[in-house]
Amino acid sequence: VMAARARAGHLLLPLLVLINVQQILLFFSSPTAVVLVVDALPSFASRIPGGHHVPCHHTLPGCNSSSSTLLSTLDSNYGYCQGLGHADCRGGMHTVQLNAFGAAFAAAAKTWTRELCEQDSDGDGFTNGEELGDPCCMWNANDAVTGDGGAMPLPPWPRSHPGFASNVPGVELKPPNSRATTVRERWACPPVDSFDDDVLTTSAAITTTKSVEDVHFNPGETRRRIVISMGNVTVPCDLRTTYVDVTVNLPDDVMVECAEKKCLIVAGETVVDSPRLHHFVVRSCPVAIAPNQNAVPVVDPFVKSMILKAEGRNETNTTTGNNSSKDDQFNTNALCDGYLGAWAPGADPFITSRRDSGFRLGGDDRPIRAITVQAHYDNFDKKCGTIDDSVVIIHYTVIDDNLSATNLRPLEEVDLPFTRISVSPTLTLPPNEDGVFISTLCQIRVHGNASDDDAAATTVELERAWFHGHLVANAMYARIYRKKNDATAAEAARAAAEAENITALMNAHELVTPIVDMPAWWFDDQAMTDIAWDAANRYRDTLTGMLSSTRAALDERRKTAPTEPLPSYRQRLLLRDGDIVHSVCAFNTSTRDEPTTIGVQTIDEMCWSTATFVTAVDARAHCAPLQVYLGVLGGDDNDVDRIWERAEHGVGDVTNTLGRFRNDKGEYECTLADVGAKRSIASSL
């Protein structure tokens, strides 16, 4: 793997943190001493209560103003410690050493156990649980994913770092029994023997492992699955990158059932069979595939032609054996546009939902006849004979709207991409640079069903966020800007239509919060970030809430289906019609001597920034593009906040974008947002 990545120009240093060297630990007597890193990934923060939300306090390594990060001065205001177990809050991209808490977490098999929770790893007088918001040691990672009662969102908590004694909770941390002698008495915790074994384990044993189905389905809920296998496909050995499509027709009874009732996807998992697998993309198709092509793996001819062009070859001097494309091949790229999910290393399960929501599968207004899986394979050394039988499993349930007592999932989770740049003839990353970036701006447009909730027509509640890039991508950001003076959605749209240029438009907006900032990101750890579970801690009170339509749907669910687990009433980050989302993908090309294109190969790059939201009233939203801009940071110019201004100063390569999106009728419309020219974003819908 290292050799392949070296040929791809990938920086090798971050790979050190992916090597499992659990036996090589250097322990010191000091509680704040550092140790060698062990199998560390940013997504491990999801295994710890509030692991993503420990403030990057200026006293912590990597959080002061002199720290070299793309965040610059925003660290102390908006930043969170990206590498909670590392000796530097910027994580493994900056140091391969662990702090005292990181060492204890590794010793606990990278699991939140009661023993780890009750430890005081940094010796500052507060247990790890007290510092992270779980003083009674009741948090469970599985329940945090699905929203079960055992993992109701932690209350607002003055979190501090459990690995550095210099960072302790503030005076606002007030236990109910402050004079008690033990931590459990101090916080009035229930007796230890009242805990279910699945809530938290004792000692350093790993928390009870559940199947993806058991984690995501409600007790007694209808369980269905769609299994798609790559069918022992032979990975072509004359192409270094290959996209293989497998399209499977759905049985007639499934199509009818999902049209007449409501089918909701609750989880998607993969069983990876080949180390050459780069990613899966799963989409739905409104038309069926021919019987002789059903479930047959075929090389994607459109991607193949791009690969051959990049390698300077034509169609006649390559062979792909029985995987060869045909002129009459089912065109999945044109016909299958229902995005269901994507898997990449670290994103497993790649679809996940609460127990009161799910992703819609089919329906009267979105018929589904087939599902296609597009698999991307790497074959840098063009080795022949590699066979893959990887599997994608879609777990779904069926809800009959006529039987409200069975409707355990009144909320629908919906995909909301901010930018998905996969192929671009104009964007090229320059070589030998450590601060290349792609910056995009887009404006949120919400298509809601008001009913008795006017806010539902202009507001969505964010659930998760996800980024995607390739080998030289090393940081990702997504931030919300809102029209100043709390303008209405119509006023925000009018401001976009009337602005003379991007700077004038953005000067009328203010940064209200990052959705997610990831100054340390890498390809091998592309887990989806849960931004709803702990929104009350992560975001200001004025930015979070619950729509009345959502609350009413959950109230009804509680009345008609009072079985455990009860739905989780949570305050989510609210995204409003007219808000502008600024996404940034950062890249380090310092090890490459040739430009890097934006394209389909692994050695190319991509820039994805996307989120999901929940709705009880079938709301829809999209983000209308305003600007795409590629540039290079230099010297002290490392502030992501106002990158778009550089485009108007002539710094960078791209200053406009042509955006394509669908209106309420499903028709494609376009809007051109040139820097320095007025374009009507408001009238585009």
TrEMBL record:
SUPFAM superfamilies: PHM/PNGase F. PANTHER family: EF-HAND DOMAIN-CONTAINING PROTEIN. One of its GO terms (molecular function) is oxidoreductase activity, acting on paired donors, with incorporation or reduction of molecular oxygen, reduced ascorbate as one donor, and incorporation of one atom of oxygen. It comes from the Eukaryota. Keywords: Disulfide bond, Glycoprotein. InterPro entries: Cu2_ascorb_mOase-like_C, Cu2_ascorb_mOase_N, Cu2_ascorb_mOase_N_sf, Cu2_monoox_C, PHM/PNGase_F_dom_sf, S-S_Temptin, Temptin-like. Residues 570-611 form the Copper type II ascorbate-dependent monooxygenase C-terminal domain. Residues 228-383 form the Copper type II ascorbate-dependent monooxygenase N-terminal domain. Residues 80-144 form the Temptin Cys/Cys disulfide domain. This is Uncharacterized protein.
